[in-house]
Amino acid sequence: MDRGPGALVALQLAWLLLGVPDVRAQSFVGLGTLQGDTASGAYGVSADGSVVAGVSGTGLPTGQPFRWTQPEGIRGLGLMPGALFATCRAVSADGSTIVGGMVGSPSLAYRWTEAGGFEGLGTLVVGGTSQAFGVSADGSVVVGVSSFTGGEAFRWTPGAGMQRLGMLSQGSFSTAQAISADGEVVVGYGTSSNTIGNDDEAFRWTASDGMLHSLGDLAGGDFNSRAFGVSSDGLVAVGGSDSDRGFDAFRFTDSIQSLGDFNATAHAASGDGARIVGEADFALGRVDEAFVWDADHGLRRLASVLSDDLHVDLTGWSLGPAEAISADGDTIVGSGTHGSQTEAWLARLPEPEAPRLQGAALAALAALRTRRARRPRS
Predict the structure, then answer these.
(1) Considering only CA atoms, which of 19, 3, 10, 1 is closest in space to residue 368?
(2) Is the pTM of this model over 0.85?
(3) Which has more confidence, 21 or 295?
(4) 264, 304 contact by CB (below 8 A)
(5) Which residues on neighbouring strands pair with residue 120, listed in sequence order?
(6) Residue 16: phi, psi to the nearest 5?
(7) Looking at the domain covering 25-356, what would its CATH class be?
(8) Where are the domains of the chain?
């Protein structure tokens, strides 16, 4: 019997291919609501898709923050003293830190950790309010907006507290929406010399120069763009922009590019920026449906990918916006209608590497068989 290194590798690959159930296979699950509530929504997911953060209450996007895992299910986190309800916007890579905003007296951005519970992050001005929208991979850097009459983007760390990120040229408002894994790149939007009325301009801020840099907007329509998500390395920003077709989802690397001719907004990107999720109007009599985009397939209706391509049962569900995607690109979360109730959901799509892994295993097995067949008998 061949016990050499090649055989060992082939057997290990075969074990991966044939001997272990694929726990990452395509699936869809509703996350439920907290007891007594009638609605829930998911807004953040950990890097590997094992932890989901969101809110549960009587109407979205506010309620009581929750943390969901497969073993534990949905667990309410409570509220800070004086808060009436809260938002929940993002979760750290390992799922141990959750951020959002309390609404009440006072209304403050918060950071929740498994070890320490809720921590208020303060405000930029006395008597103001704040809201957190993004958190770094290790949970130590938080970004959002603090306001009194207008609003200004902030970046918070335990050592420095809440710091201003400033405004675009001639702007009077800015908000930070997402942050890179290392906390060094922030994206968001604000008013500027290019905008009028309620329009905004997407920006990217970097710690290296401490400046807001415009991402521009798509051609056509008013000058209006907003960035809502960023890849782990900070190189890919996603959001929505006015265009000559309406309001398009965009992906920005060196320049801003439309993801397709739908009325759509991109909310989040995978760690490498290769897979993007958000909401789009597919002209099917419904609006705000979840989409998934990648370079090979373009912008697709998530429900169609799940039910038609992957044969996942979505009976009784109508998917609303996709709000977040795991860094590994396999898990998407959002909210939708389940029967007569609004409910958070989680969808898993196959890993892009799976077909290559299976192919490599089969090739190794074939090579082993060929080598053994050619070996002379002793």
Answers:
(1) 10
(2) yes
(3) 295
(4) no
(5) 110
(6) -60, -40
(7) mainly beta
(8) 25-356
